[in-house]
Design goal:
two-stranded antiparallel ribbon, mainly alpha, elongated, 1% strand, two-stranded antiparallel sheet, 3 domains, Methane Monooxygenase Hydroxylase, Chain G, domain 1
Length: 1121
């Protein structure tokens, strides 16, 4: 028993009022909390960990292969030959190189891939040997010539960076050296080539056995867990974003505490959870508790602060210049402040988990359906991943308002500006979004395949249409109150922070898009989980008893409209509620003092709307349109109670569909498809013009690597063939190991090649010494059972490192030890290992490493140079994308003012949106996102041994990658702003183009031209062949020029704003709508943030010391400082 002091807390009393509990000493019993795992718990967790699973699968698969290989190729004389031990090379390649996970689907795909790729190389080797015997003379010469010709195709495949091509090259060289002296043709094909195919089949069967029977896990189960975990963490991220963006001010918290006792029962909730209007409704200020880190409002007005009002911008140019420099400072923190918190991860950090889920989805397609305890339609789960990707992208866009040390949106400032509180509704909406993520994750984890669609319709489906309407109504009243307060207040005394206005409308537009994506995610999860009984499909039919959830790309609810047009919600009660809200706003706004009290404005009565109108009528028009078209929750692949099955063909197809990817791997479809692409597309395209020929040959790094790879392979292979033919003693030194070293070690980048070479030498010594010691005792060297136990034990010990970055070293160690043990096994009594075999292995591997180093020193290419060049090209594409996005935005605003038929306008809008989505896919994903993902993957696997020195990855690469990922998020946010719909009034007018965009268009296009020129200059600077000190000065000049043009743009923008506010009573502005300001200001905010981050990337490159040294001391051969 220990005494503890209870802190002062608030607890509700029986009457519902809060009651203060005094500090008092209480007796508590020690309960052993927090719980800590003991040794038994740690051992139990280790035994079920992925490391143990990988080790057992590797050892058990080897145990399955060892007796089979040894007995088959030793006791059956017809198929016995000296290289039977080489099956372990392909087995370990399948388990460690081709298999990315420990799931059954990954093992099956690796087994099929290694078998299919192996027959490509082996059959090519058999064909070359047969053709070399055809002339009847100069066999060795023709063998070398035909081998070099065949290697042109194989080396071109190897340069395409496919693992299957590596297996094909490896099998070609080993089979060619082995079959060199096998003739006639019957002996060649039936005693060498067929045996190699059998070894590949044995390796594939052992891999499949390890994945299916040794601690098996299904990719579809891990897919569900990964999706559920990602959605759960996304909910935490959304909650963390809301806690940082919508921090309650100190005055808001104190006002709420002082009024809580008297107004707890008297006031109605702002909006009720799921339409409930009872006393237990969620109060908006209770969504996010009072933060101890809330900043005082006065700190927002300091000189140089990130929150500057328009009047300060007019008087102090230095403040805006400092603001631009702070926004693009490489030494600043441009990530969310809560990103490092484990309970609230950044949404951007969830993208690797999403990629992992997509890989699991592809692996699950190769798993048999009968292995799973319940049915999963993998095509439906692809829709879940697409919806989740959309939600992650839109949630990550919230990071634009998280920059800086102070909250950008504050209650007091917005209340003074708009005359009312607008942040409580955002707190409520994001609380609902976080709760929905938790509900979805729980449903995915608990689903066992027996629920019906209606059960998920009851679980999900919150009134997103009503929440979207409430958000639109709040914005409608807020924007109306802004102009009412502006008319009632002298412009000289008006507090008007332009940055806060843009940020608020940006967040409002983004919130609407996030809710649409959440509705789409819920719909996709319901479709994926609502599978029952059997798999026979039914025709699409309407089911009015089920709830309706719109897809994310189409469910765009339309907000209240000022006019009675068909495009918005024109319910009489909604219009009356909006009018009452606006009148109440005008009354409270005109009477508020310097320290106004938060007015409690009347909101739309959700209870009355829900009671008077059914669900189908109170949903948004997008949802109603889906309901009218019959696009309800699908019940395909289900059979109603008592209904006969639809036929046996769909069931049979679903049961055998998993064989398709395996058959494709066995037939080497990936390798053959790559070869077909080279012959039919890339080569004809390169020959179409001299510029393309130069760009795809000696200017292409991968072509140069393929050329060096081909030259080195030809040299090693021809030397092995010639020396083996003229000097029979060379055959005893196993020249195929030199070929194996070249194929495995040589890489595109020199630092990776050096790493692999050292790992190859170390693994050869370690595995060779182990194998040499095992084969010293004759009693062990001639006992297959003892050898099997020793090999499996050593394999299991090394298997614990297969899930680490030393997977490659483990592979090299295991193939070396198996070569020395299995290749020296014999049934002769009193025989033991030959030391010469160990010496030969070390000599051939060392010679191969030396040859590889000499080859790769010619025109070397560093991993850092490759990463910087990729990011430079992505940065140039990003700057051009910013310019293109503004041109699309300008054309959209200009088209609104053109006189045309409504139908033509809708068609033009639809075509433009389709073009925008296609451009987003082509540029944002293919030209920016994919190169950055490739750089991330390269940093994860390249140069793992080098932390310091010339081969270490410079800090510049990591810094630029971090900034490029931030820029990618800002570009995605800009794309989302361009796709927004009128959420407040339901329509746009021509006013923004005439009075906002057209006056600043010339200045803005100048700024965007500077951004594009900056992108081209940075790309040239990051290119290792063009890096010069003059380019550093060019980049510096471009940054300064961009800053000067942005200053001029700001002055023009402020002049336009003053003109517009001065003419707010003019008749020509009466046709404008609230959505005009929402679209222009939110897009302008996203555009400014994108330009800031583009400048951030350029300054990161410019101010890096390593970049200055490389530009100054770069030598002719590309040797870096």
């Amino acid at each position: 028993m220990e005494k503890h002091v209870a802190l002062e807390v608030q607890a509700p009393s029986r009457g519902g009022l809060p009651q203060k509990l005094k500090k008092q000493e209480v007796e508590v019993v020690r309960a052993g909390f927090p719980w800590r795992p003991g040794p038994v718990d740690k051992l139990r967790a280790f035994m079920v960990s992925p490391l143990t699973q990988a080790a057992l699968q590797l050892a058990a698969g080897r145990a399955a292969a060892n007796p089979f290989v040894v007995c088959l190729f030793v006791f059956v004389r017809r198929i016995s030959f000296s290289n039977s031990c080489l099956a372990s090379i392909f087995y370990y390649a399948a388990m460690l190189l081709l298999s990315l996970d420990t799931t059954a689907g990954s093992r099956l795909l690796a087994a099929a891939s290694v078998t299919g790729s192996l027959w490509v190389g082996v059959i090519s080797a058999g064909a070359v040997v047969s053709l070399a015997h055809a002339p009847g003379m100069a066999y060795t010469t023709f063998l070398c010539v035909f081998s070099c010709l065949a290697l042109i195709m194989l080396c071109a495949l190897r340069a395409s960076a496919t693992l299957g091509a590596l297996i094909a090259n490896l099998s070609f060289g080993i089979a060619l050296v082995t079959a060199q002296f096998s003739w006639p043709g019957h002996t060649l094909w039936y005693k060498v080539i067929v045996h190699f195919l059998e070894m590949g089949l044995v390796a594939g069967l052992a891999t499949a056995f390890a994945g299916l029977f040794i601690v098996p896990t299904l990719a579809r189960d891990e897919l569900r867990d990964c999706v559920a975990q990602t959605i759960s963490e996304l909910g935490s991220s959304i909650s963390g974003y809301a806690s940082r963006v919508f921090v309650p001010s100190d005055d808001t918290a104190s006002t709420r505490d002082s009024k809580e006792d008297s107004s707890l029962h008297s006031r109605k909730p702002y909006v009720s959870y799921r339409g409930s209007d009872g006393g237990n409704g969620l109060h908006p200020n209770a969504v996010v508790g009072t933060s101890a880190a809330a900043q005082d409002q006065k700190t927002a007005h300091k000189s140089g602060s990130i929150h500057m009002c328009a009047r300060e911008e007019d008087q102090h140019d230095t403040d805006f210049r400092q603001f631009l420099r702070d926004a693009s400072d490489p030494r600043g923190d441009h990530n969310p402040c809560h990103a490092e918190s484990p309970w609230a991860p950044s949404a951007s950090a969830l993208r690797p988990q999403l990629l992992h889920a997509r890989r699991l989805l592809s692996e699950a397609q190769a798993e048999p359906q009968f292995l799973s305890a319940y049915l999963m339609q993998l095509g439906d789960w692809a829709g879940v991943l697409d919806a989740l990707s959309s939600l992650i992208t839109k949630s990550a866009a919230l990071e634009s308002v998280l920059e800086g040390d102070e909250p950008l949106l504050q209650d007091r400032a917005l209340r003074q500006l708009l005359g009312r509180d607008v942040l409580p509704i955002f707190r409520l909406l994001y609380a609902q979004l976080a709760a929905s993520c938790a509900a979805i994750a729980k449903a995915i984890r608990s689903d066992k395949g027996s629920q019906r669609a209606g059960q998920y319709a009851l679980l999900f489906g919150p009134s997103w249409g009503m929440l979207e309407f409430e958000l639109a109504a709040t914005l409608h009243a807020a924007l109306k109150g802004y102009w009412q307060q502006y008319r009632a207040t002298h412009p000289g005394d008006l507090y008007r922070p332009a940055l806060q206005v843009r940020a608020l409308l940006y967040v409002a537009t983004l919130t609407n898009g996030i809710m649409e994506s959440m509705a789409g995610l819920e719909h996709a999860v319901m479709v994926a989980l609502s599978k029952q009984m059997t798999v026979f499909p039914l025709p699409h039919q309407r089911q009015p008893d089920q709830d309706v959830v719109a897809r994310s790309s189409e469910a765009r609810p339309e907000a209240p409209s000022d006019d009675g047009s068909e495009g918005g919600r024109t319910l009489d009660e909604i219009r009356l509620a909006l009018d009452e809200r606006s009148q109440s706003l005008a009354t409270t706004s005109s009477s508020q003092s310097e320290a106004p009290r938060s007015p409690r404005l009347r909101t739309v009565s959700l209870k009355r709307l829900m009671a008077e109108r059914p669900l189908q009528q109170r949903s948004s028009r997008a949802l109603q349109r889906h309901a009218e078209d019959g696009a309800l929750i699908p019940r395909s692949h289900t059979v109603p109670d008592g209904a006969p099955p639809a036929g046996w063909w769909p069931w049979l197809w679903l049961e055998v569909a998993w064989l398709l990817p395996l058959v494709g791997g066995l037939l080497a479809f990936p390798v053959l498809t790559t070869l077909r692409t080279l012959l039919t597309k890339r080569i004809p395209e390169s020959l179409s013009s001299q510029d393309k020929l130069a760009r795809n040959t000696w200017r292409n790094r991968y072509f140069l690597f393929g050329l060096k790879y081909w030259v080195g392979y030809c040299i090693v292979l021809c030397l092995s063939v010639a020396l083996s033919a003229n000097h029979p003693a060379v055959r005893a030194w196993r020249p195929q190991y030199a070929i194996l070293t070249l194929v495995v070690v040589l890489s595109e980048k020199i630092d990776t090649t050096v790493t692999r070479g050292l790992l190859r030498l170390a693994a050869t010594v370690l595995g060779g010494v182990f194998g040499f010691l095992v084969m010293l005792r004759p009693s062990v060297a001639t006992n297959p059972y003892a050898l099997t136990a020793i090999v499996c034990t050593f394999t299991c010990m090394c298997g614990f490192l297969t899930m680490t970055q030393f997977k490659y070293a483990v592979y090299l160690t295991l193939i070396t030890s198996d070569a020395l043990i299995l290749c020296q096994y014999t049934v002769r009594p009193d025989s033991h290992g030959n030391p010469q075999y160990f010496y030969a292995r070390v000599a051939m591997v060392s010679g191969g490493v030396v040859v590889v180093y000499l080859i790769d020193l010619v025109m070397p290419w560093y991993a850092s140079s490759a990463a910087l060049e990729q990011m430079g090209a992505a940065y140039a594409a990003a700057t051009k994308l910013i310019q293109r996005d503004y041109e699309i935005f300008h054309d959209k605003l200009e088209r609104v003012g053109r006189p045309c038929n409504p139908g033509d306008a809708e068609k033009a809008e639809a075509a433009e949106n389709e073009g925008l989505e296609q451009a987003e896919k082509d540029i944002l994903h293919n030209c920016i996102a994919k190169p950055l993902s490739a750089v991330q993957a390269s940093l994860a696997r390249e140069a793992v041994l080098w932390k310091h020195g010339i081969l270490a990855m410079p800090k510049t690469v990591h810094d630029m990658l971090r900034c490029m990922l931030v820029l990618l998020d800002r570009l995605a946010a800009l794309e989302l702003m361009l796709q927004q719909k009128p959420i407040v009034s339901g329509r746009y007018s021509a006013a923004p183009y005439q009075y906002l965009v057209e006056p600043i268009d010339k200045r803005l296009r100048t700024v965007l031209a500077d951004v594009v020129e900056l992108g081209e200059a940075v790309q040239q600077l990051l290119n290792a062949d063009k890096a010069q000190p003059a380019l550093l000065e060019l980049v510096d000049d471009k940054i300064k020029q961009l800053e000067r043009d942005r200053m001029l743009l700001r002055l023009k923008y402020l002049e336009t704003q003053r003109t517009l506010h001065g003419a707010c009573e003019a008749t020509y502005l009466h046709d404008r709508t609230p959505d005009d300001g929402v679209r222009f200001l939110s897009t302008f905010f996203a555009l400014s943030r994108a330009i800031d981050k583009a400048t951030l990337v350029a300054r990161t490159v410019l101010e890096d010391e390593w970049m200055r040294q490389r530009s100054t001391w770069r030598l002719l051969l590309g040797i870096r400082p």
